[in-house]
Amino acid sequence: MSHDMSEEKLPEPHGSAGEVADHGSPFADPGLPAHEPRRTDIDEKAASRAERQVSLMFVVSMLATVGFIASYVAIDPDKIVYIFPLGHVSALNFALGLTLGVALFMIGAGAVHWARTLMSDVELPAERHPIEASDEVRNDVIEQFKTGAAESGFGRRKMIRNTLIGSMALVPLSGVVLLRDLGPLPEKKLKETGWKEATETKPLQLINMNTMQPMKPEDIIVGSLTFAMPEGLSTHSEDFQQRIAKDALMLVRIAPEDIKDDKSKELGFEGILAYSKICTHVGCPISLYEQQTHHALCPCHQSTFDLADGARVIFGPAGHPLPQLKIITDEKGNLVATGDFAEPVGPSYWERAR
């Protein structure tokens, strides 16, 4: 009997090309494994114990921050200690590093322990979607966020919430305390200069910074610019640069009839006016003077002051006039100061009244 093989239809093997085309992948999707509840999910005592452990970590973080601040205040910066295996190290640096490290580590460890034991661990697959989400997806995300917030127990587990807030609030204090290392507190140093030693009964002589000799009125001619410092200040002293940065004077002599400001004229002597040499913008030394206009120019940022009108600012970024020093002559005919500047010298700062 003949057999027509052309009409016989053979069955397709499992996993043929047609099936691949239908499903798009030759590998079956295994899906997510069945969710296995944690002990804290089914045992409230275990959940409470985990809550206490997380809270303890946050409390340790707070104590470490307090220890950071206490170490900064109490430990001498020059103290050296031996720490195995580091060797000889700064006691202050070691204490600050240790306490700050513990404070930050405990916040991180507490958050991880909280997430692994108390927050929901149910895996929710999500298909990739375009960057711009639809309204349905956005609403779904909002609902998932609300669900996650509720399942985290942040509102219900007050112990964790309060200790977390406390530790997070205290940690930034470590950085605030370190601001103290920006330098010594100014106290009244910004409001006083070396001229504060001068009084009506015991004035201070003006010393020419070029000749290092006391100055007399006849030494200063109309249109000249001369620089001076208080007597007793030595150019060889260790703090000379710090002191001269506030004490430096510039003296000009202007014809009395050209002085516009009456108060400025009273503080001067026979047309000789003594102003701070320190610019009121950022503290650069002023060294340029135009005798025809009586204008002093700061070379750093071109702030310009009218010395014939109380050194008011007529151009540039400076915020206020140059402070003026009251000068007279003593029994020897030398120019002397009878007190300090009425206003702080140099740039503006936040505590300054003007």
UniProtKB/TrEMBL annotation:
SUPFAM superfamilies attached to this UniProt entry: ISP domain
Biased composition annotated in UniProt, kind: Basic and acidic residues: 1-12
GO cellular component labels: plasma membrane
KW DNA-binding (keyword) present: no
Transmembrane segments: 54-75, 95-115, 162-179
Domain Rieske: from-to ranges: 272-336
Tree of life domain: Bacteria
Principal location class: membrane
UniProt GO molecular function: 2 iron, 2 sulfur cluster binding; metal ion binding; monooxygenase activity; oxidoreductase activity, acting on paired donors, with incorporation or reduction of molecular oxygen
Compartment(s) where it occurs, according to its Swiss-Prot or TrEMBL record: Cell membrane
Keyword RNA-binding among record annotations: no
Membrane topology type: Multi-pass membrane protein
Region (Disordered): 1-38
Keyword annotations from UniProtKB, A to Z: 2Fe-2S, Cell membrane, Disulfide bond, Electron transport, Iron, Iron-sulfur, Membrane, Metal-binding, Oxidoreductase, Respiratory chain, Transmembrane, Transmembrane helix, Transport
PANTHER family: CYTOCHROME B-C1 COMPLEX SUBUNIT RIESKE, MITOCHONDRIAL
Subunit and interaction comment: The cytochrome bc1 complex is composed of a cytochrome b (QcrB), the Rieske iron-sulfur protein (QcrA) and a diheme cytochrome c (QcrC) subunit.
Role summary: Iron-sulfur subunit of the cytochrome bc1 complex, an essential component of the respiratory electron transport chain required for ATP synthesis. The bc1 complex catalyzes the oxidation of menaquinol and the reduction of cytochrome c in the respiratory chain. The bc1 complex operates through a Q-cycle mechanism that couples electron transfer to generation of the proton gradient that drives ATP synthesis.
Family: Belongs to the Rieske iron-sulfur protein family.
Protein name as annotated: Cytochrome bc1 complex Rieske iron-sulfur subunit
UniProt organism field: Kitasatospora xanthocidica
